[in-house]
Design brief:
This protein is mainly alpha-helical. About 80% of the residues lie in helices and about 0% in strands. It is globular. About 50% of the residues are buried.
Amino acid sequence: MVDKINYKHISFTILSLKGLLIAFLIWQVWSHAKGNFQFSFDSTFFWFVLAGFIAQLIDGALGMAYGVSCTTLLLNLGIPPAVASTAVHTAEVFTTGASGLSHLYLGNVDKRLFIRLIIPGVIGSMLGAYLLSNILDGQLIRPYLAGYLMFLGILILRKSLLEKEPGDRVKWVSPLGFFGGMMDAMGGGGWGPIVTSNILNQGNNPRETIGTVNTAEFFVAFFSTGVFLFFMGVKSWQVVLGLIVGGLIAAPIGAWLVNKLDTKKLMFLVGFVIILTQGYTLYKCLS
């Protein structure tokens, strides 16, 4: 079955699902045009564009940290947490789609790893979005998850300094996809840090790992966003559109950077970013 799927099939599916979401958002704008739809094209909008650009550049190049980076930047701009979370997930569908298409074009995707990730990842993300929307408080698990990811980041950093060459044996892909998708939806980020870092820690090729996880992230983001939109709707169009514009500009640049950095540098950067972002998360949670 995997051999029958090629890059064109994956690209067509991404474009089709993005088209569906665009149609839905246009319908949302149309239905609210005479009501509470508001959009202001001012200097604040460009700060959201910059936040989306920086977050997607990091995510596209390292395979992680879009949600963490983007949410952190938005909160520092004064956006309420609930608005930031919904906006990030909605914009992420467009940015991860563009990033995935770029990685497919550059040949950074391992089809077998991709297939093993998306189905459990989608199931986990939909379950996590439902739990966060109706039952649980995702903030409760964040410090425990951050502590685990910091430990993993240290291991990856150590590997980048000591290991000669990465191997190609990858285990527990489906459980990683499920857990990563669920934590991403519940915690506002976590797909990349959980999935990318664990697969890299097992010795898989960094370029293919980052490209594959980034491409699979589109499907995770699409279905979790569908659940969020059903229960919560879009809270701020200015934030969403700003993040989309910035992310679309950065997506091909991030994918290009993956091909330019060597294996050891990629692993070092991944470990460093995990330690930095999760250290900040732990600090915020404990303070």
